[in-house]
Amino acid sequence: QKEVEQNSGPLSVPEGAIASLNCTYSDRGSQSFFWYRQYSGKSPELIMSIYSNGDKEDGRFTAQLNKASQYVSLLIRDSQPSDSATYLCAVKEGDRDDKIIFGKGTRLHILP
Amino acid sequence: NAGVMQNPRHLVRRRGQEARLRCSPMKGHSHVYWYRQLPEEGLKFMVYLQKENIIDESGMPKERFSAEFPKEGPSILRIQQVVRGDSAAYFCASSPPDGTQYFGPGTRLTVL
């Protein structure tokens, strides 16, 4: 059973600090990794995708991937109250299948 | 380029009635996915379709639920003889061949 694990939280971070969200996955053959943000009552919104080991930066967001450790993370710098949401980690099963496995999400709460 | 469209946004049905949820993928996307989400829970994969083909329906309940993605027109998720436990948010996502999924706004189904 392929799995994507996230700490459900809530993770509370002071405004202006760095929020660090972590995710592990079980399928060593996974090739594509995604972070989605979901506000309460809304649909998931794609924030970042990452495909190779290392860091990928986009504005205040940095995704980090370590395939050897089967670990992917999302850093949010200069956290804002508007970043308060549930963050979903998603992993694409290997190269030959378009199915994505979602984690259950981590609730992030930015404290004003 | 319009995003993924879902309708209706809210649907109320009485027990025993049928619910039909529609999803129009983004232009150029040929892959459609349906998910169910209960309040305060994660996304649960239901079915993955390409035009006129069901690729993976491992998340679909064996009875009362069906999905299609015809050559012309939107994808349809059909729930027959709805029960209260079917009340949930149903999200559709579409993707190009690379598998990156983009979500529609969802349909909130309430079964009275």
Q: What's the number of extended β-strand segments of chain A?
A: 11
Q: SS-based structural class of chain B?
A: mainly beta
Number of helices of chain B: 0
Describe the sheet with the most strands of chain B: 7 strands, mixed
Strand content of chain B: over 45%
Overall morphology of chain A: globular
Q: How many helices of chain A does DSSP assign? A: 0
The fraction of residues in strands of chain A falls at over 45%
What would you report as the Rg of chain A, rounded to the nearest angstrom? 13 Å
Ranges of chain B where pLDDT stays below 50 over 5 or more residues in a row are none
According to DSSP, the number of beta strands of chain B is: 11
Helix fraction bin of chain B: under 10%
The separation of the N and C termini of chain A measures: 40 Å
Largest sheet of chain A: 6 strands, mixed
- Order of helix and strand elements from N to C terminus of chain B: EEEEEEEEEEE
Q: What class do helices, strands and sheet pairing of chain A give?
A: mainly beta
Mean of residue pLDDT values of chain A? 92
What does this structure look like?
The complex is a heterodimer of chains A (112) and B (112). Chain A has no helices and 11 strands. Helix content of chain A is 0%, strand content 54%. By secondary structure, chain A is mainly β. The model of chain A has no long low-confidence stretch (mean pLDDT 92). The relative contact order of chain A is 0.35. Chain B is mostly beta strands and 112 residues long. Chain B has no helices and 11 strands. Chain B has strands at residues 5-7, 10-13, 19-24, 31-37, 43-50, 53-56, 65-68, 75-79, 88-95, 102-103, 107-111. In chain B, the strands form 2 sheets. In chain B, strands 2, 4, 5, 6, 9, 10 and 11 form a 7-stranded mixed beta sheet that branches. The chains are: A mainly beta (112), B mainly beta (112). Chains A and B meet through strand 4, strand 5, strand 9 and strand 10 of A and strand 4, strand 5, strand 9 and strand 10 of B.
